[in-house]
Amino acid sequence: MRLFVVTFSVIFAAGLAAGWFIRPLFLSSTPPVVEAHSQTMSENASASHLTGPVVNITPSPRQSLNFVDSTRALLTQKNYRDAVQLLHTAELVGDESLHRQLRTVVLEEVSRLVQRGAHENAIALLRLYLDNYFDDVDALRWLGAAQLGQGEFMAGATTLYLAMGHVSRLEVLATIKNQIRVAVDGHAGRLQEKQAWHELLSLYEQLLVLAPDNASYYLAAAKTQMALKDYQGARETLEIIRHDATVADALNALFSQIDQLIIETSVSQSGVALMRRNGHYFVTARINNATEVTLLIDTGASITSLTPEALEVAGYSVGFNTKRRVMVSTANGSVEVSMLTMSELSIGGMPVLNVDVIALPMDDMPGVDGLLGMNYLKHFEFIIDQAKDILRLTPRR
């Protein structure tokens, strides 16, 4: 019996409070009207989200108009809490039509605020609204847009991904995805311009928490790691999506780039072993990634030369009927020699493509297949470490 009395008292008090709050809306004259014509977003909100007693009161058309006009007036006064409370009151009295009208009024005001750049006010209003209607996709989209406009990138992206989880229509889903893509591209582009690689990598790591199945984020993260010279980290990132057929071409291209950069870094750091004889340095080179030759490093030679025998082993014909013949100066005077273009010449895995070479005998240096000239070396920053007998090559970018 005592429990019944307490329960009855609580319900009675709640009824008095609700009645007192909505009393002016039924008794007062019509308040000032604030016109609103902005378009709202298209995804409909779901049904009631709050529990509570439903009062079987249906406002008359004039009373409904009072609710709408009062909501507009409160929004104009930036009294967002009471405006949202009116929306909730319409839900409590069971008038779905009035509730839809008030929702439209609220989101129209949000639209105006965002379009005017009043993002802070829009966020404040939307947070109060979403406290009760947390899965309203339109409201979430506007909140994301306002947060992005306020410069709160990750907050905006998080809100938009949250909105995607409540979408029921494919065209709206596509619109939100595009909204996110444009925001990410813009923000990432600004970080790239500043070369803020660590910040950019952090951005993609956070985005991958929100969208772990987005292959484009993995690709972008790997490229950022490459910019940071973390080539092994980039490879590990790409391994996560190795079997994603939708990005197969991009993956293969990046894997190839990473492999080459790892080789270049190794050569730059550890260097290529040199052989020293009689004050000269010799290095092993590879023609077309197949035939190995021993070349004397000659920084005074403008062009690389190979003996006719070495060229023939590599598959090149250098007879007197060769179309390209040039005059060169040697220690024994000027001679006419054949010139040809090799597809590739590499040292320590550092290739240079389409390299011109001349056919020049090395009779006075047995065991040497030619001279390494500047038309190969000019593609690199190079250092001959005489203390360690190594050649360090760093590609020019």
What do these coordinates show?
There is one protein chain. The chain is α+β, with helices and mostly antiparallel strands. It has three domains: 17-187, Tetratricopeptide repeat domain (Serine Threonine Protein Phosphatase 5, Tetratricopeptide repeat), CATH 1.25.40; 195-269, Alpha Horseshoe (Serine Threonine Protein Phosphatase 5, Tetratricopeptide repeat); 272-395, Acid Proteases (Cathepsin D, subunit A, domain 1). 52% of the residues lie in helices and 17% in strands. It has 14 helices and eleven strands. The chain has helices at residues 2-27, 61-76, 80-92, 96-115, 119-132, 137-149, 153-164, 170-193, 197-210, 215-227, 231-239, 248-270, 308-313, 374-377, and strands at residues 272-273, 275-277, 280-287, 291-297, 304-306, 325-330, 333-347, 350-359, 370-372, 380-385, 390-395. The strands form two sheets. Strands 3-4-9-5-8-7 form a six-stranded mixed beta barrel. Strands 1-11-10 form a three-stranded antiparallel sheet. Helix 4 runs parallel beside helix 6 (137-149). The longest helix is centred in the N-terminal third of the chain and has 26 residues, at 2-27. It is rod-shaped and about 110 Å long. The termini are far apart. Residues 1-59 have low confidence and may be disordered.
Radius of gyration: 37 Å
What is the terminal separation in angstroms?
Answer: 88 Å
Helix content: 40-55%
Write the CATH fold name of the largest domain: Serine Threonine Protein Phosphatase 5, Tetratricopeptide repeat
The largest pleated sheet is described as: 6 strands, mixed, barrel
Any idea what the CATH superfamily of the largest domain is called?
Tetratricopeptide repeat domain
The largest beta-sheet arranges its strands as 3-4-9-5-8-7
Q: Would you tell me the structural class of the helices and strands?
A: alpha+beta
Question: What overall form do the CA principal axes indicate?
Answer: rod-shaped
Arithmetic mean of pLDDT: 83
Any guess at the CATH architecture of the largest domain?
Alpha Horseshoe
Topology as H/E string? Answer: HHHHHHHHHHHHEEEEEHEEEEHEE
CATH class of the largest domain: Mainly Alpha
Q: Which residues sit in consecutive blocks of at least 5 with pLDDT less than 50?
A: 1-59
Q: Determine the strand fraction and express it as a percent band.
A: 15-25%
Number of domains: 3
Strand tally, please?
11
Provide a count of the helices. Answer: 14
